[in-house]
Amino acid sequence: MQYRTLGRTGIEVSTLCLGTMMFGAWGNTDEAECHRILDAALDAGINVIDTADIYAFGESEEIVGRALKGRRDQVVLATKANNAMPGEPGDRNRGGNSRVWIMRAVEDSLRRLGTDYIDLYQIHRPDPRVDIDETLGALSDLVHQGKVRAIGSSTFPAEQIVEAQWTAERRGRERFVTEQLSYSILARHAEGAALPTSERYGLGVLVWSPLNGGWLSGKYRLGSEPAADSRALTNGDHFDFRDAEVRRRKLELVERLIAIADDEGCSLIHLALGFVLAHRAVSTAIIGPRTFDQLTSQLGAGDVMLSTEALDRIDALVAPGTDVNPENVGYQPPELLDAALRRR
């Protein structure tokens, strides 16, 4: 396993990060296997674990907390807050980036994780309703209280990354030291602004969905039907499988990418992970296995060094800064989704 410094924090992280969105009801309900996955990841040298309060509505954090019992200090533990969580009827403040919610959410995450501190606490998405100073003020207090060691953003557009840095400097707040963003061979939007902006400010970058929701795992191929339990069928709208044109384009690209992987002497999975890790701003790529076999297929990718020729061939297939499906960006400003926000 290779290791890199997480931006300018001085924190050493493995080039692969274990993402745990699939722990619990959203993926694998066998807690013993989830523990086995986490154990094997740590044995392989992975030292950073990423979860979020919203994953299976807290269940992922609970499973991670139990699995880490007795060895909490061995890992860099990251979680996130922003999404609305279940609560009592009439409780309208169970989500977002307000001080009210952040202070409640962090206590809930600490309890579920069975720890008294979080190494990296991330704001899962922007919240245009809230002044970024309000958010940074709450996060700064958590750092000063010792409940959080470092703070980061996730899926923030470049302009909001800049605004957060400016606000922290001018208002004397703790600053975001990481950005977690969507990036893969098939979704390269981050190369245009978010990645170079993160690098400019010295942010550590954690990449989510480097396999583009499973498209770069090799399990979806031209001329074959996906497995019955695959997310392509169970959640086809989200994973592009019901959009015929996007599906056709991605399946064709997969075949051509497999040829590049064969020439590099690696699997498609390792090609995909090696690609995102080749970017100079990236610190670690998040892998999110649902099963133990999926984990083993991804281990070792952190050591892959792709040739310049392979990277050039990938550029020829999917142009830098472009997405095969523009909806893979991960965050759309509400002004683009709600007509009322564009009208007088």
TrEMBL record:
Domain NADP-dependent oxidoreductase: 16-318
SUPFAM superfamilies per the UniProt record, alphabetical: NAD(P)-linked oxidoreductase
Transmembrane segment boundaries: none
Keywords attached to this entry: Oxidoreductase
Entry keyword Ribosomal protein: no
PANTHER family with a match to the protein in the record: NAD(P)-LINKED OXIDOREDUCTASE SUPERFAMILY PROTEIN, NADH-SPECIFIC METHYLGLYOXAL REDUCTASE-RELATED
Protein name: Aldo/keto reductase
Organism of derivation: Jatrophihabitans cynanchi
